Amino acid sequence: MPYWRLSGFYLFYFASLGILVPYWSLYLKHLGFTPLQIGELMAILMATKIISPNIWGWIADHTGHRMWIVRIGSLLSLITFIGMFYVESYWGIALVMLLFSFFWNATLPQFEANTLSFLGNEHHKYSEIRIWGSIGFIVAVAALGLVLEGSSPTILPSVLLMIFVTIWGVSLSVPEVVVPPHHETQGGIIEVLKRREVIALLVAVFLMQASHGPYYTFYTIYMEGYGYSRTLIGQLWALGVIAEVGIFLIMNRMVKGFGLKKLLMAAFALTALRWFLIGALPENFAVVLFAQLFHAASFGIFHAVAIAYFHHFFTGRHHGRGQALYSSVSFGAGGALGAFYSGYTWDAMGGDVSFYFAAGMCVLALGVVWRFLR
User: Fold this and answer.
1) 227 CA to centre of own chain
2) DSSP string for residues in 232-285
3) How far is residue 170 CA from its own chain's centroid?
4) Which of 41, 267, 353, 359 is the most buried (most CB within 10 A)?
């Protein structure tokens, strides 16, 4: 197994997320956009995940070449992102973000499927590779927080472009596990999607990512409003992902000890508490620190368990589309709704209400998992 080449892709891919998620809204704010417009533009990044992973997943499953999709997607995403240097209007940025994210969002689900194919029956070791993505996010978000303390957010497109070039370069070095292509209709996967527990899983992952809307879109702006420096905010983002890393290191033992369903329920309960605390007590630094530690649950536990569930339900020739479906329903549809509604609730009722709304989504998802998911 090419451990370091697989890990290297995760390292740089999630380093790019460590810039886009916490700081891209600052760049848009610097250009003069309103909270409504920022929410709409950030929703584009998520909305393309509804369509893009499924289109490219279908191609991958019918050709058997997942890394070919990853390499082409990485190259086209960096080419289209160059357009960001030539536009500043709302519609110009919206178009570039639409094109860029259509290709960028094609890559990770197929890379995940390729990684799991390398792991075979040892898929419980996934977190030992994926942990490097968390490390990349931590380094990027903490370092850039320091840089932005004395610099303008206008440096962000240049930094991101360099990372996108690196992602493409690393993708060329990763070997592929070739799977036999198939040319059947989708009848088989429809049967999987009709199962009650699969529907419950899809609803749950959708609600989890929708609940992250205020956090991913406005957390940096929110904390700046309470007097936190950009350096400290970057460190808060990093703290959350450090907690996620700690969970990944022990996730294998946790799954064996508690099982997937109990862990997923715990993730939703702790995430609901996290959003409530951020909304209610943002001026209390000790509470903010405590809430950030729950990123171990809201992403670390949740993502590892969700990957395992989708790997279990979508097997064989449906593996690629199963991972694409996870990405499109959760990070795509859920993420887009989260960015969209948070812009409107933020503008109309304020940041605290947006986080209360997010907490309610997690409580609803907890009920769905408890009642319907085996």
Assistant:
1) 27
2) HHHHHHHHHHHHHHHHHHHHHHHHHHH-HHHHHHHHHHHHHHHHHHHHH-TT-H
3) 20
4) 267
pLDDT 10s digits, 163-205 = 999 999 999 999 887 665 554 444 467 888 888 999 999 999 9
DSSP 121: G
Q: Number of structural domains, the chain?
A: 1
- Cα 294 from chain centroid? 16
**Count of helices and strands (H, E) across the chain:** 18, 0
Cα separation, 350 vs 317, whole angstroms: 46
pLDDT digits (tens, 9 = 90+) for 353-368: 999 999 999 999 999 9
Measured CA to CA, the distance from residue 195 to residue 192 in angstroms comes to 6
* pTM summary value: 0.82
The residue range of the domain holding 250 is 3-372
What CATH code is carried by the domain that includes residue 41?
1.20.1250.20
CA distance 342 to 328: 19
> Which residues contact residue 55 at a Cβ distance below 8 angstroms, ignoring those fewer than 6 apart?
106
What is the overall mean pLDDT for the chain? 89
Sign of torsion, CA 26 29 34 39?
negative
Token pair, residue 248, equals: 């990944």
Find out whether 117 and 1 touch, Cβ atoms under 8 Å.
no
Q: How far is it between the farthest Cα atoms of the chain? A: 57
Number of Cβ within a 10 Å radius of residue 344: 14
